[in-house]
Write a structure and sequence with these properties.
The complex is a heterodimer of chains A (about 325) and B (about 290).
Chain A: H1 2-24, H2 27-52, H3 61-76, H4 82-104, H5 109-128, H6 131-134, E1 140-141, H7 156-179, H8 181-191, H9 193-198, H10 203-229, E2 231-232, H11 234-237, H12 240-253, H13 260-278, H14 283-297, H15 302-312, H16 319-324
Antiparallel strand pairs in A: 1-2
Helix pairs in contact in A: 2-7, 2-10, 2-12, 2-13, 3-4, 3-5, 3-10, 4-10, 7-8, 7-10, 8-10, 12-13, 13-14
Chain B: H1 2-32, H2 39-57, H3 61-82, H4 92-114, E1 129-132, E2 135-138, H5 139-161, H6 163-173, H7 175-180, H8 185-210, H9 218-232, H10 237-257, H11 262-277
Antiparallel strand pairs in B: 1-2
Helix pairs in contact in B: 1-5, 1-8, 1-9, 1-10, 2-3, 2-4, 2-8, 2-9, 3-8, 5-6, 5-8, 6-8, 9-10, 9-11, 10-11
Classes of the chains: A mainly alpha (about 325), B mainly alpha (about 290).
Chain lengths: ~325, ~290
C-alpha cells in the first residue's frame, strides 16, 4: 500500500505544481506544458478503447480533427461563441464514434486498426474536398481578434488551464471507469471477447460506449487545440502521426492503467522537445529508435514495470523478450 | 472514349507496380500476422540501391533491381530475425508500433543520407514507347508490367512447389504444428520477411525507372498495400495482383472524373466497405483457411 500512497502524493504534488505553474512560468514553457496536457488527454482517451477494451484504434485522430473543424466552422461561418461550439464538438465526436463504431467495432485485431486508420484518412480527404465549408487545403481561420471575434482570444495562460482541466477530467473519467462494472466489462472483452459475451456482457454496447467516450474526449482536445491555433489545416489536424504518437505515449506509460498515459505523455513530450532543440535534423530518426526500443523492452508500460520491479526487487527488463519472442 | 482507354491502360500499368509492392506485404501479413508499416520504406530503399548502382557502376535498373533485391533480402532477414521475432507474441498493436518505429527510422536515415528530393533512374528506353490506336504505351511501363506479373507468378510457384515455400505456408497455417514437423520457424519467419523486402526492393527499382521516388512517399505505398492486401485476401498472391490492378484502374478513372484528391477517399471507402462486408477479400476463399491462431 505504501507504493500506492507514494504515487498518490506524487500525483497530488504535480497537480498543485501544475495549477500554480502559470504564476512563475511564462511563454514557451507554458505552451510546452499545455501541449503535454493535450497529448496526455489524447493518450488517456485512447486508453479507454485501446487499453481497457483492447481495440487498438489507429484512427483516433479523426475525432481530434473533427472536433477542431466543428469549432472552427461554427465560429467562423455560423459566428457562434467558443463554449457552445465546444459542446457541439464533443457531441459530434460522440455521435460520430457511435456511427463509425457500430460497423467498425465488429472487426478485430489488425482489421479494426486498419479500418480506423482508413476512416481517419478518408475523413481527411472529405474535409479537404469541401472547400466551401472547411476552406479545403488552404485551411480555415477562426476570427479571434478585434470586433470580428465571437469569443475574444483568451491567451496562453487560459489555454494552459483549459488543457489542464480537460486532462484532469479525462483522468477522472478513466479512474471511474477502471473501478466500475463497465471497466471490468471492458477488461473482460480485452481478455476474451467471446467468453465475455458468454457470461452476459453486452459486448457491442460496452465497446461502442468505450469508443464514444474516447471520441468525445478526443474531440474536446481537438476543439481547444483548433481555437489555440486559430488557423487549422486538414493535413495537420488529421495527421496519422498524431494517433501513433499518443498510442506510443499510452503504451510506454502503460495501457489499461489510470496513470500510465499521463506518465507516458510527460516523458515522451519532454524527450521530444529535448531532441528537437538539440538534434533538430535527427530528432524523428531518434524518435523512431526510441519507439523500437520501448516496444521491445517495455511493452507492459513503465507503470507496470516499476510496480513489478518494486514487488520483485529486481529489474524485469528481459522478461518481456522471453515471453514474447519466437 | 480515347481518354477513358488511355486512363485504363495507364491505371493497369501503374496498378501492376502497386501489386508487386503489395504482394510481399500481403505475404508477411498472411503468414506471420504482422502488418509491416515499414514496407513502403523498403521499396524506397530498393530504389536508392538501384539508383546508386546506376550512378556508380552505370548498371541498368533492370540489373540494379537484382542487386537491390539481394541487399534488401539480407536486410529484411536480419530485421525479422534480430528484431521482430522478439515481439511476435506481444499484442498486435505492439508489432504495428514496432514497424512504425522502423518506418520512421528508415525514412529519416534515407532523408539524412540522400535528402528528401525526388529522384529517378534514367534509361535510354523507359520514356520511349509505341501507340496502339489512340493509346500510348511507354516501353518502361510495359517492361515493369510484364516483370511485376512474372515476379508474382514466380512467387506463387515458389510457394507451391518448393520445400521452403511449403514450409512458409505450413508455418502460416499452424506455427506450433509446423515446429513439431521439424520446421525452423525462426528461420522461416526471417526468410518470409526477407522475400517480402526483396520484392519491395525490386519494385522500387522499377518505380525509379518509370517515375520518381522520394523517402516521404513511403507511407502512401504502405497505405495502398493495405488496401490491396485486404482486397485480394491475406497471403493470396493472385488476389494481390488482381487487387493492385483494380486499385490502379480505379485511381486512374478517379483522376479523370473526380476533382482534387477525392479519389483517395474513395479507395479508403472501398477498403472499409470490403473489411466490413467481406473481410476475406474479393477473390473468394482466404488463403489460410486452416489457420490456427496461437
Amino acid at each position: 500500500m505504501t507504493g500506492r500512497r507514494i504515487a498518490l502524493v506524487a500525483a497530488g504534488a504535480s497537480l498543485v505544481y501544475a495549477a500554480l505553474a502559470p504564476t512563475f512560468t511564462t511563454g514557451s514553457l507554458l505552451r510546452t506544458l499545455g501541449s503535454i496536457f493535450m497529448f496526455a488527454t489524447l493518450a488517456q482517451a485512447w486508453n479507454v478503447i485501446g487499453g481497457f477494451a483492447g481495440y487498438a484504434s489507429f484512427g483516433n485522430v479523426v475525432f481530434f480533427g473533427l472536433g477542431g473543424y466543428v469549432v472552427a466552422v461554427l465560429m467562423a461561418k455560423a459566428r457562434w461563441g467558443f463554449w457552445p461550439s465546444l459542446l457541439v464538438a464533443i457531441v459530434f465526436g460522440v455521435v460520430f464514434a457511435v456511427l463509425i463504431g457500430l460497423p467498425v467495432l465488429r472487426l478485430r485485431g489488425h482489421y479494426f486498426a486498419i479500418a480506423t486508420l482508413g476512416v481517419a484518412e478518408g475523413t481527411r480527404e472529405v474535409v479537404l474536398n469541401m472547400p466551401r465549408l472547411t476552406g479545403g487545403g488552404s485551411g480555415i481561420t477562426i476570427p479571434a481578434l478585434g470586433t470580428r471575434a465571437t469569443t475574444p482570444y483568451p491567451g496562453n495562460r487560459a489555454f494552459y488551464y483549459y488543457f489542464l482541466v480537460l486532462l484532469v477530467a479525462a483522468t477522472a473519467v478513466v479512474w471511474l471507469i477502471s473501478r466500475s462494472r463497465f471497466g471490468y466489462a471492458l477488461r473482460a472483452i480485452h481478455q476474451d471477447e467471446d467468453a465475455a459475451g458468454a457470461v452476459g456482457i453486452d459486448t457491442t454496447r460496452a465497446k461502442t460506449a468505450a469508443f464514444a467516450i474516447s471520441g468525445g474526449l478526443t474531440a474536446a482536445a481537438g476543439a481547444i487545440f483548433a481555437f489555440q491555433q486559430v488557423t487549422i489545416y486538414p493535413e495537420r489536424l488529421f495527421s496519422v502521426e498524431i494517433t501513433v504518437l499518443f498510442v506510443v505515449m499510452a503504451v510506454i506509460g502503460g495501457t489499461g492503467t489510470v496513470a500510465g498515459p499521463v506518465v507516458g505523455a510527460v516523458a515522451l513530450q519532454f524527450l521530444s522537445e529535448y531532441l528537437r532543440s538539440h538534434y533538430l535534423e535527427f530528432h524523428t530518426l531518434i524518435f523512431g529508435a526510441i519507439i523500437i526500443v520501448a516496444v521491445v523492452f517495455l511493452p507492459q508500460g513503465s507503470v507496470s514495470f516499476v510496480r513489478e520491479a518494486i514487488a520483485e526487487r529486481r529489474l524485469p527488463l528481459l522478461d518481456n523478450v522471453r515471453r514474447n519472442r519466437l | 472514349m480515347a481518354q477513358f482507354l488511355q486512363a485504363t491502360v495507364y491505371g493497369l500499368l501503374q496498378g501492376s507496380l502497386y501489386a508487386l509492392v503489395a504482394v510481399g506485404f500481403s505475404l508477411v501479413w498472411g503468414v506471420m500476422n504482422i502488418v509491416n508499416l515499414a514496407h513502403g520504406a523498403f521499396v524506397i530503399m530498393g530504389a536508392y540501391v538501384a539508383l546508386e548502382a546506376n550512378l556508380t557502376f552505370g548498371l541498368d535498373p533492370l540489373i540494379g533491381m537484382l542487386i537491390a533485391a539481394m541487399a534488401l533480402f539480407v536486410f529484411g532477414y536480419l530485421v525479422q530475425r534480430l528484431l521482430i521475432n522478439l515481439v511476435v507474441n506481444a499484442p498486435i498493436w505492439m508489432t504495428l508500433l514496432l514497424t512504425f518505429g522502423l518506418e520512421l527510422f528508415c525514412v529519416n536515415v534515407l532523408i539524412a543520407v540522400a535528402t528528401g528530393d525526388y529522384r529517378s533512374i534514367a534509361t535510354s528506353y523507359a520514356a520511349r514507347g509505341f501507340s496502339m490506336g489512340s493509346v500510348r504505351v511507354p516501353y518502361g511501363r510495359l517492361i515493369s508490367f510484364v516483370l511485376a506479373i512474372t515476379l508474382t507468378a514466380a512467387l506463387a510457384a515458389f510457394m507451391n512447389r518448393t520445400r521452403t515455400g511449403q514450409a512458409i505456408r505450413a508455418t502460416g497455417m499452424d506455427r506450433v504444428t509446423a515446429r513439431l514437423m521439424g520446421i525452423n520457424v525462426r528461420n522461416i519467419y526471417a526468410v518470409t520477411f526477407g522475400i517480402a523486402a526483396a520484392l519491395a526492393a525490386a519494385c522500387g527499382a522499377l518505380i525509379g525507372m518509370v517515375g520518381t521516388f522520394s523517402p516521404p512517399g513511403a507511407g502512401a505505398l504502405t497505405l495502398r498495400s493495405f488496401v490491396i492486401a485486404v482486397l485480394g485476401g491475406l497471403g493470396n498472391m493472385w488476389g494481390a495482383l488482381a487487387g493492385g490492378l483494380l486499385l490502379g484502374a480505379v485511381e486512374a478513372w478517379g483522376g479523370q472524373y473526380l476533382s482534387g484528391t477525392l479519389v483517395n477517399a474513395i479507395s479508403f471507402g472501398v477498403l472499409i466497405l470490403v473489411l466490413i462486408v467481406r473481410p476475406t477479400g474479393l477473390l473468394g476463399r482466404p488463403f489460410y483457411e486452416a489457420r490456427v491462431e496461437v
